[in-house]
Amino acid sequence: MATIRSSRSRGSIGVGLAVVLAVLASTLLFFSIVVIESGNVGVKKTLGKVEAEEVTPGLSLRLPAITTITEFVGKEIAIDLTDLTPKAADNLSLRDMDVSVFYRASSDQISDLYVKYANAHQYDEESGSYFPAYRLVFREARRAAYETVAQIDSLTMHKKREQIASSIQQRLQETLDANDPGVFEVTRIVIRSVLTDPSIEASIREAVANQKRLEAKQVMVEIERKNAEIEAIRAEGIADANEIINRTLTSEYLQHELNLTLQKFAESGANTIVVPANMRGFDMILPTHQLAPGGNAVAERR
Fold first, then answer.
1. What is the DSSP annotation of the chain?
2. Domain count, the chain
3. pTM of the predicted model, to two decimals?
4. Residue pLDDT, tens place only, 206-254
5. 176 and 203: one domain?
């Protein structure tokens, strides 16, 4: 009986040990496997030494407590600059300015950035990975925004968002390339908000109102100019018509018309033609030297 009890005891110990070993093996395997998400890369460090080659997306193995793999975002990263109050070219400060900066770090340069900017990386709790050189880009983007605004007058700031965005992008890209050529790419800049000081806003409104009044006056001037052109054309047409009439009203034509009128008088019966005493204006009807007493024409002198 004692022999049987001893065998059972040893069998239980063996099973327990196997379970413990299986748990340890599973734990070791769990902490040895690292999954790098698509679009990201990893930086492997063994006993304090960083490997030059980045870890590609997928499954990777490491030795727990000896090797660490830090995951970095290789996709586009957004930096939000909020509550900026830069001074404009006229030395007036903006009340608020919000800018979003989008950048990307070259995936094959992450290991070098890991070493060069060790304290500039930003951990993202949502993705569980790091943004490479985030604080560096944040600082330089803020500086670029302030330098850009300093070149633009506050009264025109609200109309130059695209120009501001383009200038910030250019300044930031040049600064990053100066220290790390070809490593960073500033993909785009979005100006989300530009709020000027209330006194500046009043000046902007007044400037806009004056501009509208000026445009209205210009429209009125253009209308008057067109009206003058129309009157000139109308006067020119009248003058041309008068000239044509003057050319066609010859003595022979007038005599012809008078003859037709006299003929109608004759056909309608007895008519009286009143002739002025001085015969002025009647030379075309009948020459005065042909008028004689007792003629066929009836004339009353007054």
1. -HHHHHHHHHHHHHHHHHHHHHHHHHHHHHHHEEEEPTTEEEEEEETTEEPSSPBPSEEEE--TTTEEEEEEE-S-EEEEEEEE--B-TTSPBPSEEEEEEEEEE-GGGHHHHHHHTTTS-EEETTTTEEETTHHHHHHHHHHHHHHHHTTS-GGGGGG-HHHHHHHHHHHHHHHHHHHSTTTEEEEEEEEEEEE--HHHHHHHHHHHHHHHHHHHHHHHHHHHHHHHHHHHHHHHHHHHHHHHHHHH--HHHHHHHHHHHHHHHHHTS---EEE-TT-TT-TTTS-GGG--TT-SS-EEE-
2. 4
3. 0.59
4. 766 677 778 778 888 888 888 888 877 877 777 776 777 666 666 666 6
5. no
